[in-house]
TrEMBL record:
Pfam families according to UniProt: Peroxidase_2 (PF01328)
Gene Ontology MF annotations: metal ion binding; peroxidase activity
Protein name stated in the entry: Heme haloperoxidase family profile domain-containing protein
Keyword line: Heme, Iron, Metal-binding, Oxidoreductase, Peroxidase, Signal
Length: 376
């Protein structure tokens, strides 16, 4: 009986480890689980991130080398219309599983995202949602993981994983509280259209971005008892409101306004319009920062959240705000990343440290001190 139990538990452990996908995040796993899984992963020494584009001019990016192809069974797509589109046009692997370097190259080449922003956002997401040992990240979705234990969402969620990067009050995606945090929602896009008609003369521009961001905050306050709007989500929500203007508008267009059929193509279908040209210059942290200021100013709500019931939004003085960029960085590392990996060892610790260094690299010279939660 004892022997049978030992064999059975070995089989179960093996089954789980065998079923564990190479891109699954190791965050939050017990030491026992890590012991099972780590030997079966293909460990990689993380290569440094790619540098900026040499040629940052606008050009045709929906081109014969990058045709739109519909999603195949098993391809991963998630909450980010930018990355979904890059996968559907083959700038990223079409299955939606990528390395940080592939993501940085794709957002630069396909959309002309600036190197500092691309590196910062990619490593933020990769540290919390990617596999630090294999150097792979899923841009969303669940794997077909079938183990004896029900899979933890945090293991297989990729970018869908809630509250570490993905968060509430998105423009076209629902709050995780309502059960689905990543699918396109027609009723929210209808509001996007209504606001574009009301404030943008039928297009999404910065005025619409500001009003619609505020509307989505008010809606989550009124409907989601669990609404959370603190750093890092506080920052990404405002940044993402600027992206349709900076990245989804054709680079030959001078008016900074996005037409609604083009918007639907990106948000719903992960598809660039025919003949699409990328932005006419690299869009990095400085440009996005000034656009965020424009969106924030008319409705300057401080970070906070509801208190377990609707309409109970309370400011959280411990969360970083737009005056506290270094605290955004430090809290993300000290609390979010360290919280997911309380005591990493071996290759996991080494790779975490390497990736934390890459994450900090765009802030070199910014005056923000680097922090080292796992030693140096
Ligand atoms: C650099 C790597 C990137 C990563 C890791 C990333 C990740 C994400 C994630 C996790 C979300 C979901 C946040 C949420 O709504 O809860 C998101 C949203 C969004 N992303 Fe990205 N993203 C990246 C680049 C881009 C690019 C290049 C674009 C535009 C071309 C883009 C456009 C957007 C937009 C518009 C949203 C908001 C969706 C909505 O609110 O409905 N992202 N991104
Ligand atoms: C950019 O130019 C440098 C120097 O000429 C070269 O080493 C590098 O490979 C180029 N990068 C790309 C992406 O073409
Ligand atoms: C977010 O969506 C994913 C995919 O449906 C799911 O696994 C995860 O549990 C969701 N997160 C929350 C907190 O509901
Ligand atoms: C609501 O928030 C609590 C505390 O943050 C969390 O434990 C719980 O999973 C959340 N529930 C849902 C459905 O998002
Ligand atoms: C957005 O469009 C509306 C309507 O054309 C216009 O009044 C407003 O000034 C525009 N906003 C910006 C920031 O250009
Ligand atoms: C890019 O477009 C902006 C307006 O959208 C314009 O101010 C700028 O001059 C353009 N830059 C180049 C290099 O064409
Ligand atoms: C950030 O919070 C501090 C108080 O903690 C406040 O004085 C400051 O105005 C806030 N900055 C912004 C941009 O909201
Ligand atoms: C982050 O942790 C380091 C120690 O690892 C500490 O020196 C630093 O003050 C912490 N920063 C914040 C903002 O908590």
């Amino acid at each position: 009986m004892v022997q049978f139990t030992v064999i059975l538990s070995l089989l179960l452990a093996t089954g789980k480890a065998l079923a564990f996908p190479q891109y699954g995040s190791l965050a939050g796993l017990s030491e026992r689980e890590l012991e099972d899984i780590l030997p079966r992963l293909h460990a990689v020494k993380p290569p440094p991130p790619p540098g900026p584009l040499n040629d940052t001019s606008t050009k045709l990016v929906n081109n014969p080398a990058h045709p739109f192809l519909p999603q195949r069974n098993g391809d991963m797509r998630g909450p980010c219309p930018g990355l979904n589109t890059l996968a559907s046009h083959g700038y990223l692997p079409r299955n939606g599983i990528a390395t940080p370097a592939q993501i940085i190259n794709a957002v630069q080449e396909g959309f002309n995202m600036g190197n500092d922003l691309a590196v910062f956002v990619t490593y933020a997401a990769f540290l919390v949602d990617g596999n630090q040992v294999t150097n792979l990240l899923s841009i969303g979705g669940k794997s077909s993981l079938t183990g004896p234990d029900p899979p933890k969402p945090a293991i297989v969620g990729g970018l869908d994983t809630h509250a570490v990067f993905e968060g509430d009050a998105s423009m076209t995606r629902g709050d995780a509280f309502f059960g689905d945090n990543h699918s396109f929602k027609e009723n929210q896009f209808d509001e996007f259209i209504a606001f574009s008609n009301k404030f943008g003369g039928g297009k999404y521009n910065l005025t619409v971005a500001s009003e619609f961001r505020w509307q989505r905050i008010q809606e989550s306050t009124a409907t989601n008892p669990n609404f959370s709007f603190i750093s890092p989500r506080y920052f990404t929500a405002y940044a993402e409101s600027t992206f349709p203007i900076t990245f989804f508008v054709d680079g030959r267009n001078e008016d900074g306004a996005l037409s609604l059929d083009v918007a639907r193509g990106f948000f719903q279908d992960s598809r660039m319009p025919n003949g699409f040209f990328r932005a006419n210059q690299s869009i990095g942290l400085d440009i996005i920062g000034s656009l965020i200021d424009f969106i924030f100013e008319p409705h300057p709500i401080q970070p906070g959240g509801n208190q377990g019931r609707v309409n109970s939004y309370t400011v959280d003085p411990n969360s970083a705000n737009f005056s506290q960029f270094c605290q955004l960085y430090q809290d993300f590392v000290n609390n979010t990343v360290k919280g997911l990996y309380p005591n990493p060892q071996g290759v996991l610790r080494d790779n975490l440290n390497t990736n934390l260094g890459f994450f900090f690299s765009p802030l070199q010279g910014s005056g923000c001190p680097q922090v080292f939660p796992f030693g140096q």
